[in-house]
Specification:
This protein has one domain (about 20-110). The protein is about 20% helix and about 25% strand. It is built from 2 helices and 5 strands, in the order βααββββ. It has helices at about 25-30, 50-60; strands at about 20-25, 65-75, 75-80, 90-95, 105-110. A 5-stranded mixed sheet has the order 1-5-3-2-4. Strand 2 and strand 3 (about 75-80) form a beta hairpin. About 15% of the residues are buried.
């Protein structure tokens, strides 16, 4: 006897092209990152733990389009819109919310070395 209780699952998805990544200066002028009022050093990023993370999560709950995650990625470091856990380094919160589905900001890129 053969059991066939698994329903057929049909999956479809669309890959939407991502525009060219913007550089950090353009991003900063457009979205206006806010200073971290919880840190005495006057930085504009928020840590991934403690009270600073609590603040980020509070903003993410109320106004998620103002939260950005600084991540370590393939070939460099990037700012991407939204709250993310994987490869996170820190968070930034902006005055101006992002619109759309995906924004990528190149913060630094590793230089490729030619192999001989």
């Amino acid at each position: 006897m053969r059991w066939n209780h698994c329903p057929k699952i049909s999956m479809s998805f669309t890959i939407k092209p991502v525009g060219d990544p913007m550089d950090f200066d353009f991003w900063s002028a457009k979205y206006k990152p806010i200073p971290n009022h919880l840190n005495e050093d006057g930085v504009d990023y928020f840590e991934t733990y403690g009270i600073e993370l609590g603040y980020v999560l509070g903003v993410a709950d109320c106004d998620p389009n103002r939260v950005w995650t600084y991540v370590d990625g393939d070939g460099g470091t990037y700012l991407i819109n939204g709250y993310h856990l994987v490869n996170r380094i820190y968070y930034m919160i902006t005055e101006v919310p992002y619109e759309g589905e995906y924004v990528e900001v190149i913060v630094s890129q590793e230089e490729c070395e030619d192999e001989l």
